[in-house]
Amino acid sequence: MKLKFLGTGTSQGVPVIGCTCEVCTSENPKDSRLRSSVMVTTDENKKILIDCGPDFRQQMLVNHENTVDIALLTHEHNDHVIGLDDMRPLIFKSGKDMPIYCYQRVGNEVKKRFPYAFADERYPGAPAFELHEIENSSFTVLNTEITPVEVVHYKITVFGFKFKKLAYITDAGFISDVEKEKLKDLDVLILNCIRKFDPHPAHFILPDVIKLFEELKPKQLFLTHISHHLGLHDVEDKQLPPGMHLAYDGLEINF
């Protein structure tokens, strides 16, 4: 299987509008971060999208991706769902509703934000979604076992997802001991890391991630959902402990 980072930035993206810091003005493409999302390609070459934010159209074009077989949504915040309307060309091409797997709570929010996709009489150009409610237990789709990992993001629960020995977690500030059991003996762990300093009420910061790396001991850990406050990619990546890396848009991982 393969995972590609379509975006590794926070809800504002990097560069941030109007910011002139060294990260936002960097000419290194690794310092430009679209909103966080990944594409997982299965052993049978099926495409699983995790999250569909406002940069979805650009991400698909830049990465020469032209298919999504199913979408997994971690939670309902706009930087993770508001791009769903841009799935229309894929839906029209397939002639099928787009399957979306998420919490019931998240599905209800999708219905509120895209009511025209669920109307009894839909406008001919409207998207069409097929919602599938998932809970905190493993399920199989596209001949691929997917294990949700429930984490806490401020005051809401958010799903990360585990495939084989890789786990992807974004928008987390707390992981219970029970859920940590799912994250042991991993080849690859991907965690959000919004900045280096100053505790955040909803996200891990670098000391939190280093502590989890030492506790869970994955073979490799990649940071994502990164803000301009974390620093320049080429500088900060070299300062991380061995086995830890800053992810960047377009990076691919085989697992």
TrEMBL record:
Family annotation (InterPro entries): Metallo-B-lactamas, RibonucZ/Hydroxyglut_hydro
Metallo-beta-lactamase domain ranges (all copies): 47-226
Top-rank taxon: Bacteria
Species per Swiss-Prot/TrEMBL record: Chryseobacterium salviniae
Coiled coil location: none
Record-linked Gene3D superfamilies: Ribonuclease Z/Hydroxyacylglutathione hydrolase-like (3.60.15.10)
Name of the molecule in the record: MBL fold metallo-hydrolase
Cross-referenced Pfam families: Lactamase_B_2
